[in-house]
């Protein structure tokens, strides 16, 4: 989770991210950020997020995104 | 029958009476029959295209979702590719028949009838069914087994002409569920329909002759700037008005369609604008083009390569490529004439540039601290309004050279030197337009600050609600452009 929060902060240094920050509801992430994040996750965790997983529920909070990474990493 | 003809409200009212009189399990059949009647009445010459899409998508989805395809994605893929190719080709064929010179080329051939115009709703129902098909392929949606129910989803009549584009998981179950009569919902729906007609018939259609005059007068300089502003208001009234009618009619039947606009002219940057204008097309392009291209294996490889060699910019190369592809697709969806490709690329350029200039903006704002000043917000809004108007004016000239000639004239011809030609509007027209546009602006401001105005009015004094609704009805009846002998202006987006 630490690494993920660091990635989010790199995208938006002006925001203090916590695992429960509402990333989409508060309009902190747009589609550009999501794709950049997917590419960073591929680099950092070696997890490829497929297009059908790019849905609001998976990017709602850091926790939701971390859960997705773990699920895809295990599968 | 067109949506802007007086027949449409009568047709809808008759359908509503039947809808709320039959048992709940029969209601979707009433909607399907109504949608079928509407299509036969409004565009039967092109029924073949609609049937091709309905049958091919229904069969392909069943093949993918049932039997062997259910378990094995590889077995689903040929059906997906085949069906997408058939439907995209039909759409492209129809759009290419609208290209300059196509009429002469097709004269005497069997497809000559296509030069009459685009098949009714083809751009919208093709997108909606393609989205459904891809969802079935991905396994996120179960294929609809009832052909009638599927047809209703694809050709639900209020949204057929200009959207909004809906997803199956959101719209399908609503269309087939039972909806008991609800007076408040019916009243909300009717108010929205009325507001839509006001924007279309009182504002957009009244402005249409002025926009046409300016467009035909080879206007440059200041006249061109006026044209871009008038066209922005006309398109806003026309498109949001049409979508309000679609959402309002659907609401009367108990069906909630997705919102397509959220005060787009109050956006402060391009990304915000595109999250507020034609939102359902944006969501479709994001879900089915931008994301899949961004995470595709070739783009991921390119990103890794660029990241290793180009540093910070390299990280964004993949995203920019996907943005380019998405805007190309959006441009082609609007039309195959070169101006729409230019329009798409200009939007892409502005988005990429604003992304690249973000660090500069951050430095600028930390140095001057204007970001939170109210006047700076107003400046950003006006800047975005003018910029999007200039890009949008591409719609008006099939030949991009004509467009660029006018765009450059803004910098070469002093704005005040170019007289604005006669616009064909009387003083009374301008008065009505000023009041109408003022009302539209006021409603947008109130919605931005307080949310749903209909909810607010419902909670307030009922006489105020009745009074405003009556006033709106009178305004549409007295000042709307309609009636015997008047050839209503087609919805602009019905041509895309």
List the helices and strands and how they pair.
The complex is a heterodimer of chains A (75) and B (496).
Chain A: H1 2-11, H2 31-45, H3 62-74
Chain B: H1 7-19, H2 27-43, H3 47-65, H4 67-71, H5 73-96, H6 102-106, H7 122-138, H8 147-154, H9 157-160, H10 168-176, H11 183-216, H12 221-252, H13 270-276, H14 279-294, H15 297-334, H16 338-356, H17 358-368, H18 374-392, H19 400-412, H20 427-450, H21 453-459, H22 462-479
Helix pairs in contact in B: 2-8, 3-5, 3-7, 5-7, 8-10, 11-12, 11-20, 11-22, 12-18, 12-19, 14-15, 15-16
Give keywords:
heterodimer; A: 75 residues; mainly alpha; Non-ribosomal Peptide Synthetase Peptidyl Carrier Protein, Chain A; 51% helix; B: 496 residues; 72% helix; globular
Describe this structure in words.
The complex is a heterodimer of chains A (75) and B (496). In chain A, helix 1 (2-11) runs antiparallel to helix 2. Chain A is built from three helices and no strands. The radius of gyration of chain A is 11 Å and the shape is globular. The longest helix of chain A is centred in the middle third of the chain and has 15 residues, at 31-45. With 75 residues, chain A is mostly helical. Chain A has helices at 2-11, 31-45, 62-74. With 496 residues, chain B is an all-alpha fold. Among the domains of chain B are: 7-179, no CATH class; 258-417, no CATH class. Chain B contains 22 helices and no strands. Chain B has helices spanning 7-19, 27-43, 47-65, 67-71, 73-96, 102-106, 122-138, 147-154, 157-160, 168-176, 183-216, 221-252, 270-276, 279-294, 297-334, 338-356, 358-368, 374-392, 400-412, 427-450, 453-459, 462-479. The longest helix of chain B is centred in the middle third of the chain and has 38 residues, at 297-334. Chain B is globular, with a radius of gyration of 24 Å. The chains are: A mainly alpha (75), B mainly alpha (496). Chains A and B meet through helix 2 of A and helix 14 and helix 15 of B.
């Amino acid at each position: 989770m630490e690494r993920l929060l660091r990635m989010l902060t790199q995208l938006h240094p002006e925001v203090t991210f916590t695992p429960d920050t509402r990333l989409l509801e508060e309009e902190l992430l747009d589609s550009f950020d999501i794709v950049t994040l997917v590419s960073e996750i591929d680099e950092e965790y070696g997890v490829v997020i497929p297009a059908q997983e790019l849905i609001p529920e998976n990017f709602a909070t850091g926790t939701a995104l971390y859960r997705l990474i773990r699920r895809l990493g295990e599968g | 029958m067109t949506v802007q003809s007086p027949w449409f409200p009568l047709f809808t009212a008759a359908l509503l009476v039947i809808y709320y009189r039959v048992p709940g399990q029969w209601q979707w059949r009433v909607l399907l029959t109504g949608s079928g009647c509407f299509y036969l009445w409004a565009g039967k010459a092109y029924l073949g295209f609609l049937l091709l899409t309905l049958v091919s998508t229904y069969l392909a989805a069943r093949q993918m979702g049932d039997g062997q395809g259910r378990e094995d994605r590889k077995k689903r893929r040929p059906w997906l590719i085949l069906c997408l190719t058939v439907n995209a080709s039909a759409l492209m064929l129809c759009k290419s028949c609208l290209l300059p010179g196509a009429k002469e080329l097709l004269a005497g051939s069997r497809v000559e009838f296509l030069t009459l115009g685009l098949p009714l709703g083809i751009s919208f129902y093709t997108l909606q069914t393609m989205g459904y098909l891809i969802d079935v392929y991905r396994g996120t949606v179960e294929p609809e087994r009832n052909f009638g129910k599927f047809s209703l989803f694809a050709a639900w009549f209020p949204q057929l002409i200009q959207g909004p584009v809906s997803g199956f998981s959101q719209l399908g179950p609503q269309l087939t569920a039972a909806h008991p009569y609800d007076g408040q919902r019916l009243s909300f729906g009717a108010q929205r329909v009325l507001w839509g007609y006001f924007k279309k018939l009182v504002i957009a259609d009244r402005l249409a002759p002025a926009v046409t005059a300016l467009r035909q007068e080879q206007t440059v300089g200041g006249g061109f700037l006026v044209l871009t502003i008038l066209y922005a208001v006309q398109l806003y009234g026309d498109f949001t008005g049409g979508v309000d009618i679609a959402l309002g009619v659907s609401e009367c039947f108990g069906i909630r369609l997705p919102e397509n606009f959220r005060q787009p002219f109050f956006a402060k940057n391009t990304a915000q604008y595109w999250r507020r204008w034609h939102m359902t097309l944006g969501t479709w392009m994001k879900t089915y083009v931008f994301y899949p291209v961004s995470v595709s294996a070739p783009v991921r490889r390119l990103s890794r390569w660029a990241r290793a060699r180009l540093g910070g910019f390299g990280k964004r190369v993949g995203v920019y490529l996907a943005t380019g592809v998405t805007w190309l697709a959006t441009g082609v969806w609007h039309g195959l004439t070169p101006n729409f490709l230019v329009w798409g690329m200009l939007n892409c350029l502005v988005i990429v540039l604003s992304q690249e200039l973000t660090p500069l903006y951050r430095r600028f704002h930390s140095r001057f601290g204007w970001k939170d000043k109210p006047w700076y917000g107003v400046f950003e809004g006006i800047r975005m309004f003018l910029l999007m108007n200039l890009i949008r004016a591409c719609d008006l000239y099939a030949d991009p050279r004509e467009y660029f000639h006018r765009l450059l004239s803004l910098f070469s011809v002093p704005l005040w030197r170019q007289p604005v030609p006669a616009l064909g509007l009387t003083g009374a027209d301008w008065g009505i337009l000023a009041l109408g546009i003022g009302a539209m602006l006021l409603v947008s401001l109130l919605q931005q600050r307080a949310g749903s105005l209909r909810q607010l009015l419902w909670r307030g004094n009922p006489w105020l609600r009745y009074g405003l609704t009556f006033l709106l009805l009178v305004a549409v009846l007295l000042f709307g452009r309609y009636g015997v002998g008047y050839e209503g202006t087609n919805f602009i987006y019905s041509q895309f």
